Amino acid sequence: MTLEDLKVNRPLRLIGSAGEAGIPVNLRQDEVVTSAQLTLNFAYSPTLLADLSHLTVLLNDEVIGTVPLTPDGAGGVVVTLPIDPGLFTNENRLGFRFISHYTRSCEDPLHSTLWANISNTRSKLTLTLQQLSVGDSLSRLPGPFFDSTEGRQLTLPFVFAGAPSNDLIAAGAATASYFGMTASFHGFSFPVLYSDLPNGNAVVLARAGSQIGGWVVPEASGPTISLVRNPRNPYASLLVVSGGSDEDVLAAARVLAASPKSLSGQKAQVTPQPIARRQPYDAPRWVDTRRPVRLGDLVGQSYLEGAGLRPGLLTAEFRTAPDLFFWPRPGAKLTFGYRYPAGPWLDYTMSRLDVLANDKYIRSIPLRPERTAAKIRDAIGVSAIQHSASVDIPGYNIFGQNQLQFYYDLHSKKKGACEGILPIGIRVGIDADSTLDLTGAHHFSRMPDLAFFASSGFPFSRVADLSETLVLIPQAPQPDTLQALFTLIGRIGDSTGAPAVGVTIARPGESPTLRGRDVLVVGPLSLASQASELFQSAPVRVEGSQLRVASTSPITRLFSRFGSNVDQRDPVAADAALVTNSDFSGVTSWRSPFDKSRVVVAVLSANPGRLPEIVNSMAKPEANAAMQGDLAIATDKSFNSFQVAPGFWSGHLPWWVAVMWWCSRNPLLLALAVIGASLIIGGGFWVVLGVLERKRLSDREVDPR
What is the pTM of this model? Predict the structure, then answer.
């Protein structure tokens, strides 16, 4: 595993005369390390004194090696350190302690020459593991298939006894959503096998008595979930979801996904229970928009605390529906308390706390010295300054997956040589009782928007159990197609925290109702011709192995000009990109022709073997951010995105907000409306006053005097 595999997203930069860094390394509870070594690829300042400078590497506070920092290795050095396997537990911390000096006399502990950089992509930890047999019991789920303490991605094959039916695919989708929301940020993929068993752990979805590579699925008289040993590997397990019929398998998978804690023993025959349908926007993992939410309810306190002058980003992650509409408010309100050390050594004129949202700068808060009352408080034992602040998070900077980030930048007054030393044990933090307030937001957005789909599976995740989602697959789906589908469903389960027990699977030629449903299409380009009615309003058309931008009528092009003052379409550039792509792979979206309030999203490829690659790339932050508009063309590492067709506004606003918002977007029409209303009102007054005038004159004519 590289350090990047261990969630170190940037090179480790150690600064100062005593810089430190630590990396968690977690192992499964059913694994033991038999041998280990660490390969470090790093560079450091060439001005360091070799006899006084070194890098110490620790595992769980035990020293595993010390590397002298000699001038000849400053430009880059590779060092391999063996590690005693007996030092490993299930939860470990790999530590680095950078001791550096540039002079033999007194020195500035933060001098610019005191630095070292450890590569996160070329440094790696190599472990040889022995798997242990810890017994078979369904009460251990999601173990032994996934262990939350490990840092590795979950790769869990799904096995079918031949080409699966719609019910078996729906069972696989429900199971994938359970493992996806369990593995979450660790990452996951679900390869699919037909009539064959892998050598490791796997999920088997098949009727009882079916044969898979010479192995027979155990008998079951009804919906059954069981754990059995893999006949190809006595240390691997099979989670067998079976029954007497495909409907039984689907019922068992729904129980597994919705109530895994109810299972126990090696085998459980389950009784299908009615599962209440979820309501729109009630996903368990989405931040509640009806009340302010504590940051301490989103993340553990350890994520909100740091050590040192520059402890790195303190991060609170949260998820929400991506279609939040805050207007006329600027966005969400973050009210937080923050703590930092007190003392004469801290340079308050330079020190600050930066607040960011999704890596975008929001505001800097200067750190102020303590007041007289605080100094009296310090005298009785409290040595931290506590303040509070409030910032607005712009609505345009809130997506399906979000991070609130706090960066302390502390500066010392002791910048010169011989000016003393810095205090040890510097601690900073954000109060767990800080709140994020999304109240007042409405659900209203411009659709289709592939950025919503990439970040949180929206609009399908709008109803978290996918009961308003129909998945269209080819008549004879290949394993790669189902792998892409299951990984997509797992991503949606991860976003919502709810199992996909209500999804409907269909194939071309079948006629389930499409009214009231969003449609997810996964498969080869040929699906477009097989489901021509669904694709009739798509922004693209299929020509062999290519896509081309669909032509629009002059009237449509004319009226699209009045659709939105933020509509920045470029169909010409999109068509040029499609022409140069002879083997299309990507994602496109459009308004459903069967329900004008619903959306179709199609994940397509001329080569179905690339479908898993498209879905897996959506887990990479750079590629995820690049997917936008209504057409995203897959490249080697990312997507080229375009807005091809005019979109539509979807959702609901209170009538008074809708009126104000329409007026704000159409000032010319508003001015014409005001002039027209003035004319109508003025004309009305003119008529009424004319009647009154004539009545008054007639009264004078009949006056007897």
Answer: 0.82
